[in-house]
Amino acid sequence: MYKITLVPGDGIGPEIAKVARECIDRLGLPITWDFQDAGETAIKKYGTPIPETLLDSIKKNKVCLKGPITTPIGKGYRSVNVALRKSLNLYVGLRPFKSHKGVRSKYQNIDLVVMRENTEDLYSGIEFERGKKDTLEFIDFIKRRRKGRIPLDSGISIKPISVTASERIVRFAFEYCKKNRRKKVTAVHKANIMKFSDGIFLEASRRISQSYPEIEYEERIVDNMCMQLIQKPEKYDVLVMPNLYGDIISDLCAGLVGGLGMAAGANVGEDCAVFEPTHGSAPKYKKKNKVNPAAMILAAVLMLEYLGEVEPSRKLEKALAEVIKEGRSVTYDLKEEGDPSVVGTKEMGEAIIEKLKMT
Ligand code: NAD
After folding, report:
1. Of 22, 51, 117, 155, which has the fewest Cβ atoms less than 10 A away?
2. How far is the CA of 254 from the centre of ligand 1 (A)?
């Protein structure tokens, strides 16, 4: 019997979460859902975007399926996703990117996995606001130590990269390769410029790679990596990198497989894991029965695989892939612009459930 925390989330979250839940329920597994609020929805109820009840539920159930959460830009509360990753120590951001037949994309046969370090780097949340006393003191400290001159009207974000966190994510990437018969790990960095932060990540990658002689290892500077992924993505397999590059390269890879509507991720720690679509809460489409539920379903596929339910996981992925390949009951983003045969989120979900009934 599994008890799983389900966070429908904000914006389009509840619509795609409902479809994913109905698909999973159709698989007949012994799952009970523990519904929880986060983000805007939780603020209305509890006055905080991350209520204790949510954290307690994930800690207890160990597994969570989560819809997208709205984060106000430049003001208001900090990202719930970042806070969840930090407070549950979900140090791995695992994102597989695979081409699906029927999805409009310039690329076919993409099969990449991005491993993003999830807990530090510029996402540490350590920031100094422009003009504040601490910020001016910090700028003065840098000047006195002859480390450089920072304009007084600057804001500052800190980028910590540790040996511990770097080794942990790189080891996870190699272990993943071993388990999933992957052949190559590429470490992505900018150590030529950030010698004391990315330099640590690169050294850790080199060190850990030596324990896995059977797996090929190589390195790419992040800007070159972006170009290589556009020009010859077939050359790459598992990519491991610090937090910020992971965020950006994930979106690049989502573009290779047909956009954010087709990309999902797992945030994994020692004790628990949170599965989610990569896209956001697309507020303009809220309650419009419009968006593609595929990324949320792919998040569910990853979750079932994590639970060891490999057969049901494959079954769900296959049903989704068939609906997309047939191209009849799919949402606007999977059709030519202006195609009148576009269906809504709910109808695409029903088509996937029909496929599940047939297998
Ligand atoms: P977004 O991903 O929500 O939407 C960008 C555009 O992508 C949408 O307008 C839509 O055209 C398209 N899109 C997104 N999901 C789709 C789907 N399932 N099917 C079809 N098309 C889809 O990005 P945004 O507008 O930059 O962010 C909106 C909010 O979401 C922000 O508050 C942001 O912080 C948050 N966000 C949350 C997460 C998360 O919870 N993991 C991730 C990214 C952004």
Report:
1. 155
2. 13
E strand residue ranges, 40-174: 63-66, 92-98, 111-117, 127-128, 156-157
Catalytic residue flag (residue 34): no
pLDDT digit of tens for each residue in the chain (359 aa)? Answer: 999 999 999 999 999 999 999 999 999 999 999 999 999 989 989 989 999 999 999 999 999 999 999 987 666 667 888 889 888 999 999 999 999 998 988 999 999 999 999 999 999 889 999 999 999 999 999 999 999 999 999 999 999 999 999 999 999 999 999 999 999 999 999 999 999 999 999 999 999 999 999 999 999 999 999 999 999 999 999 999 999 999 999 999 999 998 888 899 999 999 999 999 989 999 999 999 999 999 999 999 999 999 999 999 999 999 999 999 999 999 999 988 888 999 999 999 999 999 999 87
Residues within 6 Å of ligand 1 by CB: 68-71, 81, 260-261, 276, 279-282, 284, 291-292, 295, 333
Sequence ranges of the domains in the chain: 1-98+260-359, 121-159, 161-256
> Among this protein's residues, is 190 annotated catalytic?
yes
Residue 263 has phi, psi (to 5 degrees) of -125, 135
DSSP 175: H
CATH class of the structural domain 1-98+260-359 = alpha beta
Q: CA-CA distance, 329 to 358, in Å (whole number)?
A: 16
pTM: 0.90
Ligand 1, residue 284: give the atom nearest the CA: 9
